[in-house]
Amino acid sequence: MPALLDIQGLSKRFGGVQALEDVSLTVDAGETVGLIGPNGAGKTTLFNCITGIFRPSAGRVRFGDAGAGLAHMPSHAIARAGLSRTFQNIRVFASLSALDNVLAGAFTRTTTGLLSGVLRTRAARAEESAAGDRAMALLAFVGLSEAAATPAGALPFGWQRRLELARALAADPKLLLLDEPAAGLNSTEKAELLTLIRRLKQQGRSILLIEHDMQVVMPVSDRVAVLDHGRKIADGPPAAIQADARVIEAYLGTGSA
Amino acid sequence: MVLLWTMVYGLWTLLMERPSALHLARWAAGIGAAFLLPLVLPNAYYLDVLTTALIFALLALGLNIIVGLSGVLHLGYAAFYAIGAYTYGLLSVRCGVPFWLGLVPAALVAGLAGAALGAPALRVRGDYLAIVTLGFGEIVRIAFNNLDQWTGGPNGLLGIAHPRVWLPGRGTLDFGVASAPYYYLTLAAVVLIAGGYVRLSRSRIGRAWLAIREDELAAGCSGIPVLPMKLLAQGCGGAVAGLAGAIFASKQGTITPDSFDFVLSVMVLAMVVLGGLGSTRGAIIGALLLGVMPELLRGFNQYRMLLFGLSMIIVIRLRPEGLFGGAPTRKAAHARAA
After folding, report:
1. What is the model's pTM?
2. Would you call B123 an interface residue with chain A, using a CB distance cutoff of 8 Å?
3. Per-residue pLDDT tens digits for B278-305
4. How many CB pairs under 8 A join A and B?
5. What are the domain boundaries of chain B?
6. Assembly ipTM
7. Structural domains in chain A plus CATH codes
């Protein structure tokens, strides 16, 4: 069976800086892959290349059975194909309510157009009500039910992270890209996040997870890939990665042992 | 004055999400008051000022789709108003198309012009986009000015037909130069467009626009096609201006390019900002205020515009988010959660 996400030989250059060099990475359906690496290793750049924010300088990205080359698709088409993401620096729709944030995330899963929206046709009302119920269920899933009517920008930091997760799930993605979901969270919130990710895994979701925090990434990942200076230096089960000499060297530097 | 207040209050209530019986009563009272207003005003001049203010309200609602919902700063909005006015004007003068039939192409052509301008313009951002829209506004006005063989140039397009309606028992009634029919016509258009605006802003499309306004990148990654949605907003906003333009042309009977200058674009933008970006009530109240105030201040003669500017500065200083600022976000959540 071909991998759900198949990245081959991806490179990205910004002027003289080689942010990514010949990176290949796969995520199988139902798999959770952790992507770790020191600051500036190119993790977020890789995400941005996958989601159409950056155009890769070389290489290709295939997704799903369609085998679509994501490298030349716009962001919204990639999202429509079933790839949703969260952001390292939170990007909620600040003045919209939490509920509206999730509903906006369901854009690709709803169809009401301009005219049916204005006329509030029976179909439009039915869809709006169903989408609202689904959005409330997702808010409940991430534990934000009581914040549904609150403007997203007024929510505490940790809640905004969870809201982003709910917004990404609203598109019912085939693959979820989480960009440092634990960054800035306290230990209680991290524990809650771990529970959430485990529940997503139980639902059979495929996840690609960028994370610094080993206590988050190691327990939930089926496989961990390591980036350093834009190259992939290791890829394997969490236990093997923790013991890998090159990984330890990348994090701690040479001669430290 | 009481009637005017009832009208404003009633119209306000009209824009509530889920009207209760009390709201419906206020609604009826508001529409009744608006209906009765022409009967108590001392002369046609007041009614004319009010009609002009209502046309401004239409423009403010349309511009609010572009600026308030999709978050694109547009400095040439008067161009769409001009395109609507000239579309109906030319159809009327050249082809004898009646007003009610002319409304459709006026809105359509202006809407298409909005989308057509947007296609290249929306690829630039921020200050550059503002300059492109400003340039567009001026180009359209200058084009109408210079195409004298069709538009009559600076002398204006003359002899545009007034609307006619057929009333049972009274035969065909030409609106002519009376004030009251235009007042009712514009009022009906404002109620219609405001209702549509509220519904639209709370629909899937409206949410997509707001998401784009809040964060374009995140909206794109959530599957919202940013450029097409912005074009749609420009088209809708343009169509509303086209509608307002056709009403204006039919009321005036004569249109000249200098009715659609940059100052008008800025005035409408000021109405939207004063009322609060994205707010329906805000756009209407802002338009009524800025439309009526210069007339109310006439007693101050040459200090009129000075006072006008001063009062705007005071309002913006006290309420930077506008009178009714804040996004029209969905508040039905409580009801749903319960």
Report:
1. 0.89
2. no
3. 888 889 988 988 888 888 887 777 887 7
4. 140
5. 1-40, 47-262
6. 0.92
7. 1-82+173-257 (3.40.50.300), 97-172 (no CATH)
